[in-house]
Records
---
Amino acid sequence: MELTLSLGIGLLVGSGVWLIQRPRTYQVVIGLALLSYAVNLFIFSMGRLTNRLAPVIDTSVEVDPSAFVDPVPQALVLTAIVIGFATTALFLVVLLAARGLTGTDHVDGREPER
Amino acid sequence: MTEANLLLLLILLPFMGSALAAMLPGNARNAEAWLSGGLTIVAFAVTASLFPSIADGGVVRRQVEWLPEFGLNFTLRMDGFAWMFSMLITGIGFLVVLYARYYMSPKDPVPRFFSFFLAFMGAMQGMVISGNLIVMAIFWELTSIFSFLLIGYWHHNAAARDGARMALTITGVGGLCLLVGIIIIGHIVGSYELDDVLASGNLIRDHDLYTPALLLILMGALTKSAQFPFHFWLPNAMAAPTPVSAYLHSATMVKAGVFLLARLWPVLSGTDEWFFLVGLAGMSTLLIGAFFAIFQQDLKGLLAYSTISHLGLITTLLSLGSPLAAVAAIFHMMNHATFKASLFMAAGIIDHEAGTRDMRKLSGLITFMPITATLAMVASAAMAGVPLLNGFLSKEMFFAETLEQHHGSMLDGLTPYAATIAGAFAVTYSVRFIHTVFFGPKPVDLPREPHEPPHWMRVPIEVLVLVCLIVGIVPGITVGPYLHAAVVAVLGDRTPTYSLSVWHGFNMPLVMSLLAFVGGIFLYLALRRYLATCEDGTPFLRNLKGQRIFERILVTISWRWARWMESAFGTRRLQPQLRLVVFLALVAGAWPVVRAGYVPETPSLAGIDPVFAAIWVVGGICALGAAYKAKYHRLAALVLMGGAGIVTCITFVWFSAPDLALTQLLVEIVTTVLILLGLRWLPKRIEQVDNATTSIGRMRRHRDFGLAVACGAGMAFVSYVMMTTPWPESISEYFLLNAYPEGGGTNVVNVILVDFRGFDTFGEIVVLGIVALTVFALLRRFRPAAESIGVPEQQRIQDAYDDDRSDREVGETVRDYLTIPSVIMQWMFPVTILLAAYLFLRGHDLPGGGFAAGIAMAIGFLLQYLAGGTRWVEDRLRILPVRWIGFGLLMAAFTGIGSWLFGFPFLTSYFQYTEIPFIGKVPTATALLFDLGVFSLVVGATVLILIAIAHQSIRSHRARAIEATKAEEPEEEFV
């Protein structure tokens, strides 16, 4: 399972890194979104992978910390997901505005000379 | 203890006054003056009342813990020396307020003036009574900042801006040096407390770091006190309003430097380094300042250079290292403050009533303003050092001290001559000031008809001149005890016996004084004709200006070098920058692994769950596909990206993170809708046209591909290694154990977010709110590109279909588009709200919470937009997302602040379970209120972003309408 997920993270990072080096703004937006998936998964996996141990405690029995997955990375990632949405939105709007102002969707705001 | 608290009051009063003054209306000149004057006189009275406690070497202290873990305390400490300065700051401060009331024009923005003025006073006050060197450095920098604001008060004037900037640059750099010097001292002594530092003189002087510390501290003190070679900022600061000059350059700002030198005198002085550095700076300043002052044509310029020279005198005295010289220095600080403040005010009156400060134009004013003239004459006599005035006393002491042999070096031998020459120059410029301005023929073509100023504008000068006289005639019984308190505070056991009497017999200092008088008057007579007409500035040296050198340096550093660096290393293109960032990150990540020679175990294929692996095969294909398709097939790329998102979401479910899965799923929906809305405005890209197939292009792609593969492989490696390493001890156990007993919730992730780490969450929602507002602001000015304005292809096809059929009207198909889903979406609205409420309420105990509920609610609104269109929704529903954002932030903040009322730190939560009819037991923690804030903000931010983009379609309708009318107009002409 660890191998599967780490390969998955690797693929997401590879695709993301490829995309953010592309010249078109839309590619960069998609690239950043893929990178944010990868980073969220990476941080999340710091708590190690376990099934069916969600950090929701049962009040009727005494809490045994080893019976739950680490909640801290989850708390970190939860806000990161929402912030990730916000930055994607911001970047999308910046690219729309740049497109409106410069007339091109090249990341530098002008088409390269050939 | 009351006395100690009075010290706090001394600092708080001016700062509070500053805040109040800033809020008064712009034309409230009288209210401002009453407020400032009242506060200042109270501060003066408070200071005066402290005298008995400090009279005989006593010290009043007030300590507030600041950063106790670093041994830093906010210590206030008043001894005789600080008291003397406090008296000057508040006393002269009050007189300046009174003067400024009449000086400032009703057209000037007075609230700003008094606000800055009081803040400056507070900073200065804090500087002199701080008992901790770090605190002192902070107040020191505050004085630099507020003096910048005061000097640049008339910011429409280029000279004021330049002068202010120069003063700030020089004193600010000095302040930073001072801070470093203080840190070294703290390192040597082991404490920043002034008491400890003053007690460790020998330790500091014998330490290896003494010289660097001394150099750095001198940088601070000499820049502040405008000592050569840093003197040139002071004349440029004369662009300030005259009350500011009178205050900053007599009693406060520039005195801070010599104050510091005197304060640390017992610790730092007495070494050869001290004598040469301080002595050389002081003596050259003394001479240069006095010489330059003679040749100024601007009244304030003359006074500025004379101030520089007098500060040089004080510095020279402090350099000598003998206790008697220190007494003279302290005495002269006091005397200079009184006569220079009054002279600046007199110059301001002349400027105010005659309309110019140019000495070539001014003449014979004594007939127009006899009282002011008399006062100015007495004050400049004090400046020249005429007997029976206070300036004479300290100048005699100075002459006497220069005659003493302290070190037996060349510099020492020259001192008496330098002192006499500087004394002669002082006489020359003082005589020139009086003779040119007040005597001679009546002035011609002055901008205004000169006359006496309003009575109360003159009162401050009268008071100061009276002080000069009284101190000059009967020093022993007037100023004696106060000076003694200051001297004892600085010198302690080394306090010498000194005499303040006016007549010391016919001795060498008196001869030097006489020589200076005669020489000075002769020099004036010799130069008189030349001065009456000459250009402003010193002969031969006019072009050698410190100011110009300073500007050259600034231009070189901040423009030439910066340009060179930019052209050598910079690029405005994004791709190389990103490539570099990614590459450096890769190297930084790989470096430790390679260096440590880490060899991982061979991963085993055992234990791979086939279902999970299959899911990730899909995920991987989605990621690669999105990367492949993003250029030409945007929609496909978006769908594939969503696929990768869903796989991420499933992964969260798989590995026990229901909260994350829920949030990810909801965010996935809004992200997709968001990008879908944006797609409309991007230019078309046709595959055949711009496929770069040049060899350079191909090479670039290979390089990027290599980088991407390396990064991907590296991240996969790091993740694998990390996931297979055993779980170390972490803080998680604490959260798991205490979530219920302390946070009152069973969903630990949510408890962490809204309770344990509530402050982080607060920061995050603030970021979210800011992003949403930024999006809104950016799109407000957005104009779609011309080629995107047209009706989308799909709608054109549908309209064409209507056109062909005789039974259909054009637009009918577009209107009926997705009718059934629309109805369902509209019906879903209440259900979505209910779902959001459900997610919100269960959040503390089960997966859900403010973030998830907020996005769910936002999706509810979003569906209405999708179903009915922007106009339809906005005719029926006013959403006001900005209010939601504001409410959310305030809710979260007030919940946090609420805990203060009960004496707990920010965001401490309280909880209990309450029974609500029909719903059951609901946890009502204050954390729930905080979560409500999160919820409201997330709704507002998400909806605001999406609506802002959706509104662009309405814009394009409008744009089309405008295009259409433009196209029609020429036709109308034909009709």
Note: Chain A has one domain: 2-49+68-102.
---
Amino acid sequence: MTTILIRTLIIYVVLILIMRLMGKRQIGELEVTDLVTTLLISEIASLPITNQEIPLSYAVIPMVTLLILEVFSSVILIRFPKLKNIVSARPTVIINKGKLDQHALRDLRISLDELMSEIRQSGVTDLSEVECAILEKNGKLTVLPKARFLPPTAEQLALDVKEEGLMHIVYNNGVFSRVGLELIGKDSAWVEKQLKRRGLTLQELFCVTANENGKLFWIPKEGKK
Amino acid sequence: MRAFIITVILLAVLLGTVTVNHVYIKEVFHNMETALDELPDVLASDCLEKTLALENYWEKQVDPVSLSVSYTIVDRICEHAATLVACAECGDLYGYRTALALLRDAIGDMMRFETPSIGALL
């Protein structure tokens, strides 16, 4: 067990270093430490399942160790932000004020095709429309279009719009959602009353959503009117 | 915060389990080693009794040891202990000495993988 514990620690540190050196391209949507933990846990968990020669502790001890390392490292990184630069990458500005930083692109080993693909996925099709593009530390590209290509906001159009609030599920398949009702500050009697006013009964509905302003939306059960 | 507290408790449980396990494996190793040291190099009259005692002791330790020691090593120790008893019973000196050496090697492996060392870690 002692050896397994120390081996897990070594592999964790080595994998973090390797992933860090590989750069943001390999990360996807996770932080380096999260990715390493996920990679290791998925591999370790399958070992005693497929190989009966291995005691269960060979998987349990490393998995618990990784969980502890993951929680502790996140707490340490919050307390000492400077350490974060060691284990995770910093965001990199690729396009600033409409100017493409070719040096940054080379450093990140990202081709122009890949950059264009990422920009298109953000809803922008023309490179000249981009004011700012930042490769975040989780490997995702944040794209800010130039102001003249952004859709106008209600404020810019001087429109008076009300905050609608989030719609929450209050009734689902025959059961009232206590959490949903609490979030909109109403009770089940209120929902029933509102439905009755609209000539509806709960029996004929699949689900009901509502917001705190009293806005109601429902989906009837299939086969019912 | 709750997750952190649970993690701290888990760390304490983990370190406790690893320490207790290490002490236990070390004790089993020393008891086995002492029992093997007490066995004569030649087949004496008390050989069978001593090898049987050693095999009985090991059989009692198999289940707890198997929690943390590779089944391959556990099986090797079981096999060599049984061979040792059989050879002592039928008076096969060559087989007895071979089983004795292999059993020493197997319990050595059990302890080697439990002791943090460059060899075990790499």
Note: The mean pLDDT of chain A is 85.
